[in-house]
Specification:
With about 350 residues, the protein is α+β, with helices and mostly antiparallel strands. The chain folds into three domains: about 70 residues, Uridine Diphospho-n-acetylenolpyruvylglucosamine Reductase, domain 2 (2-Layer Sandwich), CATH 3.30.43; about 110 residues, Uridine Diphospho-n-acetylenolpyruvylglucosamine Reductase, domain 3, CATH 3.30.465.10; about 110 residues, Alpha-Beta Complex (Uridine Diphospho-n-acetylenolpyruvylglucosamine Reductase, domain 1). It is built from seven helices and 20 strands. The strands form six sheets. Strands 6-7-12-10-11 form a five-stranded antiparallel β-sheet, with no helix packed on it. A four-stranded mixed β-sheet has the order 1-2-5-3, covered by helices on one side. It starts with a strand and ends in a 5-residue tail after the last strand. The chain binds flavin-adenine dinucleotide. The site of flavin-adenine dinucleotide has 32 residues, from strand 3, strand 8, strand 12 and strand 13.
Length: about 350
């Protein structure tokens, strides 16, 4: 495995932000990973794992070793009449896995079609869309602990999955490197269609009939393509902010001032309400605004975009102004969903 010095990360992040890594390597097997780890220790370099780069914002150059995760493989560990256990390499592309599962008749992740990135990154923020989260189908994962060089298995409870959250988001960067993810999928269709926009799209396409998993995936793909900018054309990282979870008192105060606030229930936190960051930002007038080459998408106020040549620092400055405006107007603190990587290892 080759280790490159002074490597250009611009094509490795979907914000297309210019940044360079002091060292860079692509790991395709366990031996590569151990070699990368030994190199980082020997050279005393911090380590950052990168999958598809669709949830990171580089603020400046990275002073350590960037390990590009490309470990492949899909292995059927167990199967009975009802379910299958699949162990998937961390470097597999998430959307390709969704499509592969549909072809094989393995169901449960069709609502997560077209989410960019790798399988290994999926547990980090417990990816979710259209009423389904990774946690729903997650069985376990294996991760290499950088400090000890040992491999550990994390069962579902160990991962502490929450809304766009898991235990892996809170450790030191590079501390745990996910190498495989095991999913438990159903052999019978389990359509989850109650998410409003998905429900409406399916009704428009198929009337009252129960949609097949492929039809659900097709509808999800169509909605995503119509709503979200393609990073290949307009670089972005999807939603920049998480949807804030607020209490009843804050919600009552807001309701007194605004009609028809969109809300989502928070099943595991009674009395709490999730409201879309996009709605707050839209009310505050951020849709389509620009600060130089850093901008806000014209249809999606929660999506920051790079109009060409924006630096990570410019995008971050825009994000901070948006957070300040929402705090000032609504008293609500928006939290970034995207991982902000600063030179210190961030
Ligand atoms: C257009 C667009 C739409 C999106 N829509 C959604 C959506 O609907 N739902 C959603 O949840 N997300 C969405 N995202 C965000 C993103 O796709 C997911 O967070 C995805 O899981 C990131 O995968 P990645 O491989 O690109 O991760 P990267 O951006 O490469 O990394 C993200 C973080 O995970 C860490 N990491 C990556 N791989 C590993 C590993 N193997 N071991 C340890 N740490 C690792 C990185 O160090 C970094 O901290 C969207 C992004 C875009 C650009």
């Amino acid at each position: 495995m080759e280790i490159f010095a002074d490597f250009d990360l611009t094509p490795c992040n979907t914000f297309a932000v210019a940044s360079r890594a002091r060292a860079f390597c692509t790991v395709r097997e366990q031996a590569d990973l151990l070699q990368a780890l030994a190199y980082a220790v020997e050279q005393d370099l911090p380590l950052l794992v990168l999958g598809g780069g669709s949830n990171v914002l580089f603020i400046d150059d990275y002073p350590g070793l960037v390990v590009h995760m490309a470990m492949p493989g899909i292995e059927r560990l167990e199967q009975d009449d009802n379910r299958v256990l699949l162990q998937v390499g961390a470097g597999e592309n998430w959307h390709n896995l969704v499509m592969w599962c549909l072809r094989k008749g393995f169901y449960g992740i069709e609502n997560l079609a077209l989410i960019p990135g790798t399988v290994g990154a999926a547990p980090i923020q417990n990816i979710g869309a259209y009423g389904v989260e990774l946690a729903t189908v997650f069985a376990c994962l294996t991760a290499l602990e950088a400090n000890s060089g040992e491999f550990w298995t994390f069962q579902r409870d160990d991962c502490q999955f929450g809304y766009r959250d898991s235990v892996f988001k809170h450790g030191r960067p590079g501390e745990l490197i996910i190498t495989t993810v095991t999913l438990q999928l159903s052999l019978a269709p389990v359509p989850v269609t109650d998410y409003r926009t998905l429900h409406e799209e399916l009704e428009r396409r198929h009337g009252d009939s129960v949609p097949s998993p492929q039809q659900v995936a097709d509808a999800v793909i169509a909605i995503r393509q119509s709503k979200l900018p393609d990073p290949a054309r307009l670089p972005n990282c999807g939603s920049f902010f998480k949807n804030p979870v607020i209490d009843q008192a804050t919600f009552q105060t807001l309701s007194a001032r605004y009609d028809r606030i969109p809300v989502f229930p928070v099943p595991d936190q009674p009395g709490q309400i999730k409201i879309p960051a996009a709605w707050l930002l839209d009310q505050a007038g951020w849709k389509g605004r620009r600060q130089g080459a850093a901008g806000v998408h014209r249809e999606q106020a929660v999506v920051l975009v790079n109009h060409g040549g924006a630096s990570g620092a410019e995008l971050l400055a825009l994000a901070r102004d948006m957070q300040a405006a929402v705090l000032d107007r609504f008293g609500i603190a928006l939290e970034p969903e995207v991982r902000i990587v600063q030179g210190s290892g961030g």
